[in-house]
Amino acid sequence: MSAPKRFCDSLNRRTALRVGAATLFGAGCTLPRILAAEAPAGGDVSVIFLFLKGGLSTIDTWDLKPQAPSEFRGPFSPIATNIPGIELGEHLPQMAGQMDKISLVRNFGHRNSDHGPADHYMLTGYHPIAGFNPNLSPNNQRPAHGAIISRKLGPRGSVPPYVCLPRMHASAGASYLGAAVAPFVVEADPNSPGFAVPDLLSPLVVDSQRFENRRDLLGVVDRFQKTGETAANRGALAVTTFQKKAFDLMTSSATKAAFDIGAEPTETRDRYGRNSLGQACLMARRLVEAGVRCVSIDHTNWDTHDNNFSVLKNDLLPLLDQGISTLFSDLHDRGLLSKTLVIVTGEFGRTPRINANAGRDHWGPAFTIAMGGGGLQGGRVVGRSDARAEKPEGTPYGPEELSSTMFRLLGINPAEEFYTPEGRPVKIAETNRVISELL
Questions:
Q1: Phi, psi of 148, rounded to the nearest 5 degrees
Q2: Is residue 15 one of the residues assigned to a domain?
């Protein structure tokens, strides 16, 4: 995988947050803190949130305007799908064959066309307020969807409830819900020949015998705790039950098996595509199959200010078409699609008018998102944009409704409130309105 690119605003949003297994035994103990929260088991639906960072040009893919003037419509032509009356862009032929499993929301939009705030808006359902700093990582003023899912539903078995791959987006953090529900971050490209998840490996400086000795030490501390004499009182290691869970995660055969993408047949890996996006989609399928509740895939760079059509045709769309079409068909064939909600979106769309560099710029007011599985109706188009895709017709849907719909499908009440550290109540979702046409 190539080094992360900078967006047009010159901000490098590569996350600085890493869950280091090497800190397992130190004061930081970030991995144990992630495992600290337990919650009652919730519904059966999991979420795969594929975030196309930079902003997919949906006027060239999911909502073409072939009758618009040439400076709007671009060179791509629409093609038929396996649902009569629904058309996609010509460079998504495999997705067209899976359209019975996917629905499009074409009357979607929001009020922000800047990367950082729009990212936060789409990944949390809340528009950032004064003081938002996109340079922070994480930068969450509100908890990301995955953190809320983790808090409300907790883990299934030994696998983490919320996973980010191949890296963590800066707006994918837990905010005031705390490190206990922060994501488990893969921090590795599943397409790499030597792919391994750093936090499932023992620290290189700790050999196997010392690692086992430290496991034994936990048993000694447990005996002290049972007599009311904790490690902290003796000025020794501050070892908690969550550190034991971190040991369990690092030694869990189920967790390691879920992340072992090399166990997949060669034919399956080839079907998804031997690239970062394709293999991330395959890894996401493996993780939800193993019990992970929310997988967030961060894929860049869709910020096509220059040469939009060439970049889409030759670089980006072949990967997207192969990856998501195979994901939907694979989930369906395995009986997982009905309990796996897949959401595909960027932070916004691209300008309907083509710029002087044969590109399209940021456009939050109108774009299309794709959703399927998890109890949604497939093969539907919700709403429409106007003749030039400049704005939605009628009352649009936005990030608030996307969040509310997702939580409803997972059995989470979007009107329930969390409390900030200042004691201020904040609803899980800002609205109860859902995308009703899909339900």
A1: -65, -45
A2: no
Tell me the backbone φ, ψ of residue 105, rounded to 5 degrees.
-105, 100
The answer to whether residue 27 is domain-embedded is yes
pTM for the structure as a whole: 0.85
Query: Alpha-carbon distance 386 to 406, whole Å?
Result: 26
Residue among 303, 360, 435, 324 at smallest CA distance from 59: 360
CB atoms within 10 A of CB 77: 12
Do β-strands 381-382 and 294-300 pair in parallel, antiparallel, or remain unpaired? unpaired
Q: Encode pLDDT of 335-360 as tens digits.
A: 999 999 999 999 999 999 999 999 99
Residue numbers of the domain that contains 270: 21-438
CATH number of the domain within which 104 lies: 3.40.720.10
Task: Find all residues with CB under 8 Å of 122, minimum gap 6, and list them.
Answer: 51, 110, 345, 346, 347, 399, 402
Q: Does 199 fall in a domain?
A: yes
Please give the tally of structural domains in the chain. 1
What lies within 8 Å, CB to CB, of 265 at 6+ separation is none
Residue ranges of alpha helices (H) inside 23-173 are 30-34, 70-73, 93-96, 115-124, 145-153
Question: Which ranges constitute the DSSP H helices of 139-252?
Answer: 145-153, 208-226, 241-251
Q: Per the structure block, which two tokens stand in for 271?
A: 């079907």
Angle, vertex CA 88, rays to CA 323 and CA 273, nearest 5? 15
Distance CA 366, CA 378 (A): 22
Closest CA to 406 of 301, 296, 271, 247: 296
In a domain, 64, yes or no: yes
Count of beta carbons in the 10 Å neighbourhood of residue 393: 13
Alpha helices in 26-131 (DSSP H): 30-34, 70-73, 93-96, 115-124
CA neighbours within 13 Å on the CB side: how many for 382?
Answer: 27
Tell me the pLDDT tens digit for each residue of 268-305. Answer: 999 999 999 999 999 999 999 999 999 999 999 999 99
